Amino acid sequence: MKTVKILLLVILSAAALQMQAKDYNASMFGAKSNGTTLNTNSIQKGIDYISENGGGRLVFYVGRYLTGTVYLKSNVTIHLEEGAILVGSTNPFDYERNYNWTALIFALDQENIGITGKGVIDGQGFQVATNLVDMIHKGVVKDPLKYDRPNETIRPQNIYFRGCRNIVIRDINLKDPGSWNQQYDQCRNLAIDNIRVDSKSYWNNDGVDVVDCDSVVVSNSYFDAADDGICLKSHSADFVCQNVWIRNNTVRTSANGIKFGTVGHGGFRNIHIINNLVFDTYRSAITFAAVDGGFVENIVVDSLRSLNTGNVIFLRIGERRAGKKGRMNGVTISNVYAEVPATKPDAGYNYEGPVEDLPRNISPSALVGMPDAMIENITLKNIEIHYPGGGNPHYAKIGLDELDKVPEMGTSYPEFSMFKELPAWGFYIRHAKGITFENVKLVCDKKDYRTAIVLDDVHGATFSNLKVSEPEGRKSPVFHYRSTDVKL
Predict the structure, then answer these.
(1) What pLDDT was estimated at residue 189?
(2) Residues 303 and 180 grouped into a single domain
(3) Domain hosting residue 352, numbered range
(4) Is the pLDDT of residue 4 over 80?
(5) pLDDT band at 10, cuts 50/70/90?
(6) Domain holding 208: CATH number?
(7) Do 449 and 483 reside in the same domain of the chain?
(8) Angstrom distance (rounded) from CA 136 to CA 201
(9) Same-domain check for residues 324 and 453
(10) What is the pLDDT of residue 125?
(11) Contact 243/212 with Cβ under 8 angstroms?
(12) pLDDT mean over 451-468
C-alpha cells in the first residue's frame, strides 16, 4: 500500500504542474530557430522571467535552437513541440559545471519543474567530445585522457538535476549526450514517462541515472544506450535511493539493462522493476550490487523478458573500499523469460561492449556474496532461461572438485564475467543463505561439460519444481559444496 501511495503522489504532482502552466513562446525572448544563433542568454532570460512571474511553460516550436548551459528554475517547464530541437553547442566552453558535472540543462534545488513535448534534445555529444579531445591534445584543457577519452565529468550531460522536487520528464526525445544522458541527484517526486532515449554515440552514454532519489517512476519509455540503460546509484553515504518504480520500459544497451549498485555508498530500498523488456544487451539484463559499503533491501522484479542478452541475473556483494562491505537482503525475482545467445549480442553497434574477461565460456546467472558478507533471502520464482550450452572443457576449465579456484575478487568492479570461467552453465551461487527456487526451468541447447546449478557455501536453499533440460542430462542437475540445509 505504501508504494501505491508513493506512485500516486508522483503522478498527482505531475498533473498539478501541467494544470498550472501558462505558455510563453521562446521567440518572445529572442530565441532563434535557425540552428546557428547561440540562444543561451535568450533561453535563460525566458526561464527567469517565467519563474519570477508565476510560472508556466517556455514553448519551443518547429526549428533548431542552439544553446549552451541553461538553468531551469522553479515552476517552469520547457516544452518542445514536435519538430522543435534543442541543440547543444559543440563548443565545450559554452557549458558550465556544477557539483563536478557538466550539463546542457541544469536545475539545482528547484521545485515544480519539467521538460515535456514530442520534440528533441540533441546534445551533439560526439562532436563536443571530439572537440574536447582536440583541446586536450593542444594543452588548452587539462585531462589525463584515461582510456583515450575525456573524463565523463567534463563532457556535458543533456540533463543534470540536483536537490529538486516535483519533476516531470514526459514524451521528449533525448539523444547524443557527451556523457551520461540524464542524471537526477538527491531529488524527490520524479516522474519520467513515455520518453525515447538514443544514447549510443560516445562512451559512458547511460540512458538514465537516478542517484539518491526518493519517490521515482520511470515508465513507458525506450532506452537505447552505449552504457547502462536504467541505472540507479547512491553517491552519498548519507542518502538512500528508495521508493522507485521502473515499469513498462524497453531497454537495449552495450552494458547492463537495469542496474544499481555502482556507486553504492548509501543504499537501495523499495525498488520495484515491473514488466520490462531487455534485448540485444551485452551484459546483464538485471544486475544489483552492494560493493561500496551500502545496502540493498526489499527489491522486487516481476515480469521481465530478456532476449539476446549476454547474461540474465547478476547479484553481487563486494568490498571495493577496505572495511566497507555491502549487504543484500530480500530480493524477489519472478516471472522471467530469457534467452542467452552464443554470440556477442550487441555486435555492430557504434560503441560495443568491450571483449574482456576471456577466455571463458558463456557465463551463468550468478548470486555471489563474500565469506563474511552473505547474500540473504533471495527468491526466484517462475523463471525460464534458455542457454546455448556447448561449453568447451579446455577453456580454462574449473571442475566441481576444484571450486576453490574461483577467485573472491571482493575489490573488483562487479560484472557478470568478472570470475572468468565458472563451473555451472545455469546458476552459480556462492556465499549465500535463504535461497528459494520455485518453478524454475533451465534449458541448455547443446551438451555442456558443466552442471546446471552449483552451490558453494550456501546455507538454507530450497528447490521446488526445478526443471532442467539438457542433452544427456545428469541425474542431479544441482551440485552443492560446503553447503547445508539444501532441499532438492
Answers:
(1) 97
(2) no
(3) 235-488
(4) no
(5) low
(6) 2.160.20.10
(7) yes
(8) 20
(9) yes
(10) 98
(11) no
(12) 97
E strand map for 340-466: 365-368, 375-389, 424-446, 451-464
Asked if residue 439 and residue 340 are part of one domain, the reply reads yes
Three-class DSSP labels, the chain:
CHHHHHHHHHHHHHHHHHHCCCEEEHHHHCCCCEEEEECHHHHHHHHHHHHHCCCEEEEECCEEEEECCEECCCCEEEEECCCEEEEECCCHHHCEEECCEEEEEEEECCEEEEEECCCEEECCHHHHHHHHHHHHHHCCCCCCCHHHCCCCCCCCEEEEEECCEEEEEECCEEECCCCCCEEEECCEEEEEECCEEEECCCCCCCCEEEECCEEEEEECCEEEECCCCEEEEECCCCCCEEEEEEECCEEEECCCCEEEEEEECCEEEEEEEEEEEEEEEEEEEEEEEECCCCEEEEEEEEEEEEEEEEEEEEEEECCCCCCCCCEEEEEEEEEEEEECCCCCCCCCCCCCCCCCCCCCCCCCEEEECECCECEEEEEEEEEEEEEEECCCCCCCCCCCCCHHHCCCCCCCCCCCCCCCCCCEEEEEEEEEEEEEEEEEEEEEEECCCCEEEEEEEEEEEEEECCEEECCCCCCCCEEEECCEEEEC
pLDDT score, position 476: 83
- pLDDT tens digits for 293-316? 999 999 999 999 999 999 999 999
How does pLDDT run across 217-276, given as a tens digit for each residue? 999 999 999 999 999 999 999 999 999 999 999 999 999 999 999 999 999 999 999 999
Last residue of one domain, picked from the residues 176, 202, 227 = 227
- pLDDT, one tens digit per residue, over 336-371 is 999 999 999 999 998 999 888 888 899 999 999 999
Residues 93 and 191 in one domain: yes
The tens digit of pLDDT for each residue in 135-182 reads 999 999 999 999 999 999 999 999 999 999 999 999 999 999 999 999
Among 176, 211, 227, residue at a domain's last position: 227
Q: Provide the pLDDT for residue 350.
A: 87
Same domain, 206 and 250: no
* Percent share of the chain, pLDDT over 70: 95
Do 130 and 239 lie in one domain? The reply is no
Question: Total domain count for the chain?
Answer: 2
